[in-house]
Amino acid sequence: MSELSVDHLLGIKYLKPEDIQLIFETADHFKEVINRPIKKVPSLRDITIANLFFENSTRTRLSFELAEKRLSADVVNFSAASSSVKKGETLIDTVNNILSMKVDMVVMRHPNPGAGVFLSKHVDAKIVNAGDGAHEHPTQALLDSYSIRERLGEVAGKKVVIVGDILHSRVALSNIFALQLQGAEVMVCGPKTLLPKYIQQLGVKVETNLIKALEWCDVANMLRVQNERMEISYFPSTREYTQQFGLTKKIVDSLNKEIVIMHPGPINRGVEITSDVADSEQAIILDQVENGVAVRMAVIYLLASKIKR
């Protein structure tokens, strides 16, 4: 397969296994590029990309920006958290204004699920969903799978547990779709109040005991507790959450095998994971950050190759 089956990256649920394979093979190439002394390639010299962030996100925005600049694209950054959107401008107005500046691709994070799909129907640019509400975050799931493939050789047949706030997590949903597409087994683990009612319909195992989940898995992806998305209290206290679902060195050492530990970041150290675990040999958290740039370069490059000139 030499090109993606989709024109936009709106969610993992629209991809085929071959798309993921193509993205990873392309990312392998770019990973080699970003480890060279000169980290730039002229691939997208005549492409203009707008980063539209209607929600704050330092890590994802920087990762995309770096990916775009490594490909030599022209980059326009638009932080809607501090813009005319506050003055009542609509999504379409904002985007049309940006498109009138002749933008080829839009990378967007938005609090409303489906914002990217809506946009792709109304504007003539390639859309990359950088997170829509608690719905999907496709590039995070791709870089997570890519990091597992790098550490364990392949994703197929691996057992992955996603631990924590599944209810508010777009990372969890995209990861479930991506891992299943590649033939991995998925389990979710967390307090009952943070597990969505529909979760078993997605074909995942459910476990509320962290130790049991860890004994089952090859890979543990520890999610951040998203206090900013919670209007009500889903568990009594952070301390209680940590006692039941926090990953400590003692727990890791008690397992009769070595597991791979991941975290999408930013880490609440001492809440979902202790520092000595986050900084251990088994954790691939910094690899995820590095791989994020290579995977986003691959996605942008492959979508840009479908732009009609």
Automatic annotation (TrEMBL):
Pathway the protein contributes to: Pyrimidine metabolism; UMP biosynthesis via de novo pathway; (S)-dihydroorotate from bicarbonate: step 2/3
Root EC class: transferase
Ligand binding (L-aspartate): K87, R170, R224
Catalytic reactions on record: carbamoyl phosphate + L-aspartate = N-carbamoyl-L-aspartate + phosphate + H(+)
Keyword Membrane among UniProt keywords: no
Residues given in the record as carbamoyl phosphate binding sites: R59, T60, R109, H137, Q140, G265, P266
Residue stretches making up the Aspartate/ornithine carbamoyltransferase carbamoyl-P binding domain: 8-150
GO biological process: 'de novo' pyrimidine nucleobase biosynthetic process; 'de novo' UMP biosynthetic process; amino acid metabolic process
Superkingdom of origin organism: Bacteria
Any one GO molecular function term: aspartate carbamoyltransferase activity
InterPro entries given in the database record: Asp/Orn_carbamoyltranf_P-bd, Asp/Orn_carbamoylTrfase, Asp/Orn_carbamoylTrfase_sf, Asp_carbamoyltransf, Asp_carbamoyltransf_Asp/Orn-bd
Domain Aspartate/ornithine carbamoyltransferase Asp/Orn-binding: 157-302
The entry's keywords: Pyrimidine biosynthesis, Transferase
Assembly, per entry: Heterododecamer (2C3:3R2) of six catalytic PyrB chains organized as two trimers (C3), and six regulatory PyrI chains organized as three dimers (R2).
Its job: Catalyzes the condensation of carbamoyl phosphate and aspartate to form carbamoyl aspartate and inorganic phosphate, the committed step in the de novo pyrimidine nucleotide biosynthesis pathway.
NCBIfam families xref list: asp_carb_tr, PRK00856.1
Family stated for the protein in its record: Belongs to the aspartate/ornithine carbamoyltransferase superfamily. ATCase family.
Name this protein carries in UniProt: Aspartate carbamoyltransferase
